[in-house]
Amino acid sequence: MELPDEIKKNIVEMVNELKDDGAAVKWVEANNLHATLKFLGWVEERELENITGLAARAAAGTKSFKVKLEGMGTFPPGKSPRVIWVGITEGGDKLKALANSLEKSFSQAGYREEEREFTSHITVGRVKERKGVDKLKEKMESFKDAKLGEAWVDSISVMKSTLTPKGPVYEKIKEVKL
Known about the structure:
By secondary structure, this protein is α+β, with helices and mostly antiparallel strands. The protein has helices at about 5-20, 50-60, 90-110, 135-140, and strands at about 25, 65-75, 85-90, 120-125, 145-155, 155-165, 165-175. The longest helix has 17 residues, at about 90-110. Helix content is about 30%, strand content about 30%. The strands form two sheets. It has a five-stranded antiparallel sheet. A two-stranded antiparallel sheet has the order 6-7.
């Protein structure tokens, strides 16, 4: 699920305040902010048509809906977080249902099943080491109720990610309407 520029801007402003603490976090670039509904890993180019067809069939029964992005937290939520996220409150249940539909469609077609249950969120950072994490988590408390905006979800995108030394580069393969 792609995000409108206004929400990306709001997330970046919040992240910029968190960066000041110097914690060892790899922050997600503004243009890469999104919600991953299903991650496939490496696939061959010849599979793309099948993948976009599976995504379209999984999304076909879903009507467009609104999501609200609010607050932030970590996975796991304890002393040693690995992921920093922004929450999706209103509409999160519909996003989860869509992700579950995608999961079912892809697993029935022979793609690897996700072991973890889907949680509606936007990853904004990945913790690289423990240094500075306690101070960062304290500062995150001031954003636990932050209102970051609303978005209308009327499509999902099949994306290709290419890992580079500077981070991932995303390319939209196909937009699938709900």
